[in-house]
C-alpha cells in the first residue's frame, strides 16, 4: 500500500512538472572553443553536432542553465520556446548562468540576441 502511494505521488509530480511553464533569458550560442569547452562539437549529453544539419536547420538543439535541470526528470528533454518553436535540450550551460536558455546556431551565423522573460513550456 505504501509503495502504491509513493508511485501515485511520483506520477502526479511528473505530470505537473511536464506541463510547467517558466520565463527565461534567451540567447544564441555557437559551437566554437571560445564559447564552449575544448570539444565544442560534443554536447553535455554526448551528442555530436553535425554542422551541415545545423546550417540546414535540421537540428534544433539548445542548452539550459543548471538551475533548470530539475524541470526535466525524463528523457527526451524538450522545450517549446515562444516565438522560436520546439527545441531538444542537449547541452548544459556554465554554472555562472541562471534561468537561461541558449539556442545552438551555426558558427558562420552572425545573429546575436538577448531576450529577457521569454515564455518556455517544458514538454
Using the coordinates shown, work out and report the CATH topology.
Answer: Barwin-like endoglucanases
User: How many helices in DSSP terms?
Assistant: 2
Task: Please identify the top-level CATH class.
Answer: Mainly Beta
List the strand order in the largest sheet: 1-5-2-4-3-6
List low-pLDDT spans: none
What's the total count of β strands?
A: 6
Distance from N terminus to C terminus (CA atoms, Å) equals 31 Å
Can you name the CATH architecture? Beta Barrel
**Number of structural domains:** 1
Question: What is the radius of gyration computed over CA atoms, rounded to a whole number of angstroms?
Answer: 16 Å
Any overview of this molecule?
There is one protein chain. This protein is of the alpha/beta class. It has one domain: Barwin-like endoglucanases, CATH 2.40.40. A six-stranded mixed β-barrel has the order 1-5-2-4-3-6. Strand 3 and strand 4 form a beta hairpin.
Which features does this protein show?
32% strand; 123 residues; 6 strands; alpha/beta; globular; single chain; six-stranded mixed beta barrel; Barwin-like endoglucanases
Write the layout of secondary structure elements.
Elements: H1 2-18, E1 21-29, H2 51-56, E2 61-64, E3 78-81, E4 85-92, E5 100-104, E6 114-122
Parallel strand pairs: 1-5, 2-4
Antiparallel strand pairs: 1-6, 2-5, 3-4, 3-6
Amino acid at each position: 500500500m505504501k509503495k502504491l502511494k509513493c508511485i501515485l505521488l511520483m506520477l502526479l509530480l511528473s505530470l505537473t512538472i511536464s506541463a510547467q511553464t517558466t520565463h527565461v533569458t534567451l540567447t544564441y550560442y555557437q559551437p566554437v572553443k571560445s564559447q564552449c569547452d575544448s570539444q565544442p562539437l560534443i554536447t553535455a549529453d554526448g551528442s555530436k553536432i553535425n554542422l551541415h544539419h545545423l546550417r540546414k536547420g535540421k537540428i534544433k538543439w539548445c542548452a539550459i542553465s543548471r538551475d533548470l535541470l530539475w524541470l526535466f526528470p525524463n528523457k527526451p528533454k524538450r522545450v517549446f520556446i515562444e516565438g522560436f518553436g520546439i527545441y531538444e535540450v542537449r547541452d548544459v550551460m556554465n554554472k555562472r548562468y541562471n534561468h537561461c536558455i541558449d539556442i545552438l546556431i551555426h558558427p558562420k551565423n552572425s545573429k546575436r540576441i538577448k531576450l529577457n522573460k521569454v515564455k518556455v513550456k517544458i514538454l
